[in-house]
Amino acid sequence: MIADGAEDEDKWLAASAAAFKQNAFYMQRAIDTNNLKDALKYSAQMLSELRTSKLSPQKYYDLYMRAFDELRKLEIFFMEETRRGCSVIELYELVQHAGNILPRLYLLCTAGSVYIKTKEAPAKEILKDLVEMCRGIQHPLRGLFLRSYLAQISRDKLPDIGSEYEGDADTVTDAVEFVLLNFTEMNKLWVRMQHQGPARDKERREKERGELRDLVGKNLHVLSQLEGVDLDMYRDTVLPRVLEQIVNCRDEIAQYYLVDCIIQVFPDEYHLQTLDVLLGACPQLQPSVDIMTVLSRLMERLSNYAALNAEVLPYFLQVEAFSKLNIAIGKVIEAQEDMPILSAVTLYSSLLKFTLHVHPDRLDYADQVLGSCVKQLTGKGKIDDPRATKEIVSLLSAPLEKYNDVVIALKLTNYPLVVEYLDNETKRVMASVIIRSIMKNNTLITKAEKVEALLELIKGLINDLDEPQGLEVDEDDFEEEQNSVARLIHMLYNDDSEEMFKIISILKKHFLTGGPKRMKFTIPPLVVSSLKLIRRLPVEGDNPFGKEASVTATKIFQFLNQIIEALPSVPSPDLAFRLYLQCAEAANKCDEEPIAYEFFTQAYILYEEEISDSKAQVTALQLIIGTLQRMHVFGVENRDTLTHKATGYSAKLLKKPDQCRAVYACSHLFWLEDHETIHDGERVLLCLKRALKIANSAQQMASTARGSTGSVTLFIEMLNKYLYFYEKGIPQITVESIESLIQLIKNEESVLSDPSAESFFASTLRFMESQKQKGGAISDRYEEIKV
Fold this sequence. Notes:
This protein is mainly α. The chain is 73% helix and 0% strand. It has 39 helices and no strands. The chain has helices spanning 2-32, 36-47, 57-83, 88-94, 101-118, 123-133, 140-154, 171-192, 202-225, 231-249, 252-265, 268-273, 275-281, 291-308, 313-318, 321-335, 341-358, 363-377, 386-403, 406-410, 415-419, 424-440, 448-457, 459-462, 475-489, 497-511, 516-536, 553-565, 573-589, 593-609, 614-629, 636-651, 656-666, 681-706, 713-727, 735-747, 750-753, 755-774, 776-783. Mean pLDDT is 90; it is low at 541-547.
C-alpha cells in the first residue's frame, strides 16, 4: 500500500510539474514581450498547481521550489514594469484579480515585495496587509508554504534599525509585530496538521511535521537577527509573546522544537537576563515534552558562555542563575509526575556540570544539587535502569573531573548518599573511577576522617556486597580491581605518626571484613605502609615521651601481628610467612628481640603446618636463612634455637640436592663478619661436612637408580663455599680439605660429560688463580692451595 501511494504521488508530482513547466514557459514568453496581462494570467495558472492536496510535504516542497524560482523572475519583471511607468499601486491591485485565492496571495506577496522596494508606501503598512491577507489560506500545508514565502521575500525589507526601509519612530516594533504574527499563524497551521486524518496515520503525520519544522523556526531566527531587538525588547515583547504561543498550542512536538529554537538562536546574554521568564514556562509544557534535553542544552550553552567570557561570571551571581535553574528543575519534575528517573538524574547532572563550570568555588551549590538528586531517588531503591545508572556515574564523576582532587569531592556530604542508590556492579565501577582519579592526580589523603569517607565510597571494591547467588565475577577483573585498591593504600599518608596510625587502623578495620579473597591483595600493602611508619618513628632514646607516646613501635608490631594472623585462613600461608619475616627484620632494626622472636616463631609454625610443597619449602627455607643471617638482635639462646630449627628443616627436605644446598647455606648462620660474637668455625665446618656427606649420598643414589654417577655440580658448589670461608680466615677450613675436594671433582667422570659443570669448575679454578695474582695476605693463602 505504501509503495502504491508513493508511486501515485510521483505520478501526481510529474503531472503537476508538467503543467507547471508549460505555464512557466508561457509566462516567460509574456515577460520577454513585456506583456503584463499574459504574464499575470500564466503565472496564476502556474501557481494553481500549488493548490493540490495529493502530495506529501516532501513532494510539495519540490513543487514549491519551482514556483519560488519562477516568482523571482516575475518579481524582477514587476520591478522593471514600475520603472517603465506602470503604477505599483495599480499592480498591487491588479494581481488581486486572480481567480483562486492561493495564486492571488502568492502574486500579492510578490507585488508587495516590489511595492516596498519602491518606497511609495511605508513598509510596515504593506507587511501588515500581507500578513493579514494570508489568513485566507487555512489549509495547513498550503498555508505554511505561503507564509514561508512571505517570510522569505520580506526578510530583507523589514523596517529594522539601520535598514533602508526604516521609517518613523517605533518601526522596529512593527517589524517585530509582523514576524511574531506570521510565526503565530504558521505555528497554528503546523500544529493543526497533527489532527488531520485517521489515528493510524499519526506516525506518518509526525514524520511529515518534523520535515516542516524549519519553516516555523525560521521566524525565530529572523527575530534574532533584527538589530532593533535588544535585550529590553526581547525581555518585554519577543520572549513573552513567543512563549505564550508555545504554551497555548499544547502540542508536544511544537513545544519541544520551539523552546529549543529559542535557546539556540538568541544570544546567551539574553538567556541569562531572562532566565526566570524562560524557566517559568517549562513546567507549563506538556508532560510528554522532552524538557530534560531542552534544559540540558540551555545549561550547556550558559556553561560555555561563562567559560569563554570570564567577565560575565559576576552576572551569573547577580541574576541568581543557579537558584533559578535549581527551582525550575524541581518544578518541572513536580509537574511531570511520571517523569522517568533517567530524565530527573540527567537534569541534575546537567545542573551540576553547569554549577562546577560557573561557580567552581561554591561547593555548597554542588552539594545542594546532589541533595536534590538524593531527594528524587528516595524511595526508588536500587536503580536498575542501565542508562540511569550510567548518568548517575556521570553525575558523580563530574566533581572528580573538575577539581582533579578526591578530597574536595569528599567534602560534599550528599556525595556518598547518591552512591548508595547504585547497584553493586555500578558501585564497583564508580569506586574504580574514584581510585583512577586519585592515582592520576597523585592525590594524597592525609586525614583519617577523609580516609574513612573514601573507604565508604569505594566499599564496592573492599567489601563483599550482597551479591545474587550464583553470580560469577571475572577473575581478571577482580584482580585488577584489588590491585588498584592496593595501589591506593600508598596514597593514604600523613607525616604525623599519630594520624598515620589512625589511617592504617581504619584500613585494618575495613580490610579484615573485606572477605578472604581480597586479603591477599590488601594486607601486604597495609603491612608495608605500617613498616614505613615504624621506620619513621624516633628511637626510644630520642622520643621525649618514651613508652608513654601514643604510637610506639611495639604498638604497631602488635597491630601487624593481628592483621597477618588473618592471612593463613584466606588461605595464603606463603604470603603470611613472608610478611612475618619482613616484620621480624623490622623488629630487629628496632632492637625488639621478643617481638622479632615471636614473628620468627609464627613463620616457623606456618612452615611446619602449612607449607608442604617441596619447591615452596626450598624457597621458604632460603628466606628463613637469609633473614636470620641479617638478624643481630637475638641473644645466644634465642639464636641457637632458631638456627638449630633452620638446620633441622634443611636436613628434612625431600630431594638430596635441595638438602645439600640448604645445609651449606646454614653455614652462614654461624659466621657473621659484622657480628663478632657469631664466629663459630666448628659449626661452619660441621655444616659443610654434613652438606658434603649429603652430596656423596646424592651421587650414590644417582648411580644406583640411573647407572651413572650424576652431576658433580653439588661438589663444585661445595668447593666455592669452602673457598669463601677459607678466604674469611676460618681456621677449621684447611688447605687439605680444599685440595681433597678439588681432587674428588677431577676424579669424577661426569665433569667432562656435563658442559655446564665443566664450565663452572673451570671458572672456579680461574678465580683461584686470579686471587693468587692479587698479592697480599689473600694471595699468600691461595698460594698454599695446590691444584
